Amino acid sequence: MKKARNVSAEERALWETVAKRTEALQKPVSKLVRAAPIKPMPEISNRAPRPIPAFKVGQSVDHKGDHDLLPSLGQQLRSDPVQMDNKAYGRMKRGKLKPDARIDLHGMTMAQAHPALTGFILRSASAGHRLVLVITGKGKNRDDGGPIPTKFGVLRHQVPQWLKMAPLAGLVMQVTESHIRHGGQGAYYVYLRRSR
Known about the structure:
Number of strands: 4
Mean pLDDT: 81
Number of helices: 6
Largest sheet: 4 strands, mixed
Low-confidence stretches: none
């Protein structure tokens, strides 16, 4: 059991001063707390549930109603407006333009790849290169089936975002997936602005 603490004369005087200034509550405490309003029970519908259409194994499925909220990475890049010359863009997409330099980010972590990419783009721009190739690889499927899906190919998804951020955004004119001869979905063409 805890011993009672001795109250000093100073503390007792302070308590008495505070007690004199207080006023009793006008309403009893029980009336200050209001009861929550009672909500009526929802009515149970007598409607029959929507019928499930019959399905046979092997039958084709109409996927018109299916949709993915986020377009694929390739669709996102293709929807970006063309900033460069249309003729050069067409040649680049067909793999007819040869990249001036390339970097391979295979096997790097995001912490290693980001500074490597930044340095490569800055050096390429200062060297006067126009078209460079950034190889990310297609990535490995590391989704363990948890409630939050993990992206397939982390670097493949991250590189276009890094290229649109400072300090690279001012140097990069166009980013697009490369032609199959330069890596296809596992690499990007990065078209740089002309240095002034």
